[in-house]
């Protein structure tokens, strides 16, 4: 009978969840050298009630367990929720190692066409038949890029970490993996980690003979390091930060130089080099204003011009505009004293970022937009004006940012209070 | 380590409030219809309306899925503590505390906090020095080296001299002691350089008694490693120093230096001479065991775990243990070691025990990956 079968499955799932919870509690006790009583005390439970019958604990128990283990909450949840081993369906191997290059290139092409599900599928197939560690890592990098383009930053980071751990991978590709990882971590707001990884890549790159792969790693790592430093610079009292802004500018200028050379060598056919070069040009304007405040007004004008450029559907154009909008918002906060003018410029920047984020699921830009929007909403609330209710698109942006950008979660309470409280309450 | 409940429990109000906030967000994605939102997450609307206590992981999983998040992301949204409003001085005081407690996880959080809200460019250099200290506390010398290099490049404020000195002294000592299982880092120069930039500055925890004992143990360790008759007298001196270390922090240092110097010496003496060295490791472990049971200090537990690891490696080298004979107590001991020192998984001696086939170690290695 179907109901019996479903009931049996449910029982098996509960038993598995109980087993895993017990396993993690045993690890926490070992780690802290605690007795059961001490663990129960720490988690706010009776010793006999540490594991619920359903195996599915309340969320406070999960959080407490993560703290006891010094692990992120997501690591504990992932372990509790992952399917039982052997429940995944076996994939029928339909490709041969000779198909690797075709699958790899098709995945790249599908990503450019924004058929991202197919791009991921092809990259996974390429990875499955890769006959060398480097090929397997390269397939994971392509898979990560497809995940990133689809807004699955967590998956992208998982792929890149997995690629970096592969033993026997060629050093130049290892550097590409690390540089990509630094970029993803920066996008997720983890500046310290991004800076550390990017700096290590650049140290290595400096000792190696330049090849297109090495140069691409150099461009990516310079981009990540430049951004990690740029994003650390506050919008007030920034005079003391000028030397660091100059370092960041040097990094972004290197991106322009390296991508120009790579683009020339590829005969202009590699769209991602052009896209990065164009975006770097927009990023430089913010750093130029910081390094030379007398030119701030010209830089803001130039940023506004880029933001107002007639766009088309090419991703690179939108990305350049979005980066210009990030810089525009920061420059406006730093250098425009007239409040009305500043608010107007911030509105323009916010709208540009929102448009790009909605079109491409870029959560970094979405986060920047939400921060600007939250500041505006706070200001409106302060003036006694009710801000408008959230529409479905914006609600998805908030959920996406909170899910994919760990750094944004510290503001989760404020975001949810600002946005979630305006649900309208229709039955 | 006796737990303080407050440090492991999240405020239930925050969890409940954010659960309601997430549901409100879901309602927005369903054109304002609460009914449609509850149907999206396959849950009765009354369950949400009548939610008075912390929700279960299953409910969060369903709510997250309806919003396009997986369970772990939704749980993180609920659990992440709000941005702290600690001042720059408070963060520095917290770093000093975490340094004394050898608390790697807390040091990492404080480094991220410094980097996220820097008030001065030198905060970035300090953030990476703190990351180096965090890495060394979990035995990751390579990561510590990379962070120390970056800290030196970014520079420090003169006012942070004492704090940097405290961190640097610990990093330097630990970098030599920390990981008998890992290859030395090429960035070891950065640890010396970190000390040099703060030369003449007194560290924050300027307990001269502990520092003197640590130096004495260090010299005895160096003589032990040099071998010969001087090595023998150093062995006896090390045992005296273990007896003399009454303060838990001093004992932590002396026992670590004694055990790890003995382990290093054991690798280049013949099997016939290794018994007294193994004896010193065991003695250091027992001294820490006793102190741990009395104080429950986190630092002592970490040090004890590392000394126990040294014993495992020493016995592994001598061929005294094999993977077939590992029992539950050994599993506990080894899992504690791998939880505190994840890089120990790289140790050839531990790999030789085929620990990757033990289910508990699979969990640890999966999560740490």
Please explain how this structure is put together:
The complex is a heterodimer of chains A (427) and B (369). By secondary structure, chain A is mainly α. Chain A has 19 helices and no strands. Mean pLDDT of chain A is 88; it is low at 422-427. The radius of gyration of chain B is 24 Å and the shape is globular. In chain B, 50% of the residues are buried. Chain B starts with a helix and ends with a helix. The interface between A and B is large, with 91 and 93 residues.
Keywords:
heterodimer, A: 427 residues, 0% strand, B: 369 residues, 20 helices, 71% helix
Biggest chain-to-chain interface with counts: A-B, 91 and 93 residues
> How many strand segments of chain B?
0
Helix content of chain B: over 70%
Q: pLDDT average of chain A, as an integer?
A: 88
Assign the structural class of chain B, choosing from mainly alpha, mainly beta, alpha/beta, alpha+beta, or little secondary structure: mainly alpha
Shape of chain A: globular
Number of strands of chain A: 0
Overall mean pLDDT of chain B: 84
Spell the H/E element sequence of chain B: HHHHHHHHHHHHHHHHHHHH
Alpha carbon gyration radius of chain A: 24 Å
Radius of gyration of chain B: 24 Å
Uncertain regions spanning at least 5 consecutive residues of chain B = none
- Give the quaternary arrangement of the chains: heterodimer
Q: Main sheet of chain A, how many strands, which sense, barrel?
A: none
N to C succession of SSEs of chain A: HHHHHHHHHHHHHHHHHHH
Number of helices of chain A: 19
Counting DSSP H or I runs of 4 or more residues, the number of helices of chain B is 20
Shape of chain B: globular
Q: Tell me the β content of chain A.
A: under 5%
Largest sheet of chain B: none
């Amino acid at each position: 009978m179907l109901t019996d079968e479903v009931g049996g499955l449910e029982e098996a799932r509960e038993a598995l969840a109980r087993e895993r919870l017990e396993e993690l509690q045993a690890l926490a006790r070992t780690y802290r050298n605690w007795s059961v009583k001490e663990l129960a005390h720490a988690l706010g439970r009776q010793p006999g009630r540490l594991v619920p019958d359903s195996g599915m604990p309340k969320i406070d128990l999960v959080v407490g367990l993560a703290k006891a283990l010094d692990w992120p909450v997501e690591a504990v949840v992932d372990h509790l929720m992952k399917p039982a081993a052997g429940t995944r369906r076996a994939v029928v191997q339909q490709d041969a190692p000779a198909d690797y290059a075709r699958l790899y290139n098709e995945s790249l092409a599908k990503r450019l066409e924004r058929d991202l599900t197919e791009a991921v599928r092809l990259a996974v197939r390429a990875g499955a038949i890769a006959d060398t560690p480097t090929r397997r890592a390269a397939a994971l990098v392509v898979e990560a890029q497809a995940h990133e383009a689809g807004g699955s930053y967590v998956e992208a980071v998982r792929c890149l970490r997995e690629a970096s751990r592969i033993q026997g991978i060629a050093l130049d590709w290892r550097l590409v993996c690390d540089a990509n990882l630094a970029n993803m971590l920066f996008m997720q707001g983890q500046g310290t980690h991004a800076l550390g990884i990017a700096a290590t890549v650049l140290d290595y790159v400096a000792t190696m003979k330049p090849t297109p792969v090495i140069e691409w790693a150099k461009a990516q790592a310079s981009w990540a390091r430049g951004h990690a430093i740029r994003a650390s610079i506050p919008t007030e009292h920034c005079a003391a930060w000028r030397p660091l802004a100059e370092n960041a500018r040097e990094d972004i200028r290197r991106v322009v130089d390296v991508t120009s050379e790579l683009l020339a060598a590829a005969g202009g056919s590699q769209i991602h080099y052009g896209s990065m070069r164009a975006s770097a040009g927009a990023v430089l304007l913010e750093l130029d204003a910081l390094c030379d405040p007398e030119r701030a007004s010209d830089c803001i004008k130039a940023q506004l011009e880029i933001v107002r450029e007639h766009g088309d559907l090419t991703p690179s154009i939108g990305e350049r505009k979005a980066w210009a909008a990030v810089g525009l918002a920061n420059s406006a906060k730093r250098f425009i004293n007239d409040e009305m003018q500043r608010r107007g410029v911030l509105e323009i920047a916010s709208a540009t970022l929102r448009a790009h984020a909605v079109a491409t699921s870029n959560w970094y830009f979405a986060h920047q937009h939400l921060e600007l929007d939250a500041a505006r909403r706070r200001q409106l609330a302060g003036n006694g004006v009710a801000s408008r209710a959230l529409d479905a698109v914006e609600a998805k942006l908030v959920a996406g940012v909170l899910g994919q950008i760990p750094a944004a979660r510290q503001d989760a309470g404020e975001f949810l209070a600002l946005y979630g409280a305006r649900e309208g309450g229709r039955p | 380590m006796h737990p303080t409940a407050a440090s492991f429990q999240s405020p239930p109000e925050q969890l409940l409030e954010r659960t309601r906030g997430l549901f409100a967000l879901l309602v927005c994605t369903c054109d304002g219809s609460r009914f449609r939102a509850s149907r999206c997450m396959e849950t009765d609307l009354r369950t949400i309306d009548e939610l008075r206590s912390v929700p279960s992981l299953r409910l969060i999983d369903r709510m997250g899925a309806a919003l396009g998040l997986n369970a772990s992301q939704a749980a993180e949204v609920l659990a992440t503590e709000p941005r702290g409003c600690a001042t720059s001085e408070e963060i520095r005081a917290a770093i000093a505390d975490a340094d004394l407690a050898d608390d790697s996880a807390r040091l990492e959080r404080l480094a991220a906090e410094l980097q996220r809200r820097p008030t001065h460019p030198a905060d970035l250099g300090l953030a990476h020095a703190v990351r180096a200290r965090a890495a060394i506390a979990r035995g990751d010398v390579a990561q510590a080296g990379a962070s120390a290099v970056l800290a030196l490049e970014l520079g420090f404020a003169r006012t942070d001299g004492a704090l940097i000195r405290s961190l640097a002294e610990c990093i330097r000592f630990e970098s030599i002691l920390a990981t008998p299982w890992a290859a030395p880092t090429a960035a070891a120069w950065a640890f010396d350089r970190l000390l040099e930039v703060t030369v003449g500055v007194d560290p924050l925890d300027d307990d001269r008694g502990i520092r003197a004992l640590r130096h004495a143990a260090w010299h005895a360790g160096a003589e032990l490693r040099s071998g010969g008759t001087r090595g023998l007298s150093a062995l006896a001196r090390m045992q005296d120093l273990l007896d003399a270390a009454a303060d838990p922090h001093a004992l932590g240092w002396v026992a670590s230096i004694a055990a790890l110097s003995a382990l290093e010496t054991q690798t280049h003496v013949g099997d016939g001479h290794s018994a007294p060295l193994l004896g010193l490791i065991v003695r250091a472990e027992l001294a820490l065991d006793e102190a741990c049971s009395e104080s429950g200090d986190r630092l002592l537990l970490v040090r004890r775990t590392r000394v126990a690891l040294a014993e495992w490696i020493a016995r592994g080298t001598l061929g005294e243990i094999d993977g077939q004979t590992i029992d539950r107590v050994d599993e506990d001991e080894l899992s504690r070691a791998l939880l505190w020192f994840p890089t120990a998984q790289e140790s050839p001696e531990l790999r030789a025990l085929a620990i990757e086939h033990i289910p508990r170690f699979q969990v640890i290695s999966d999560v740490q990956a």
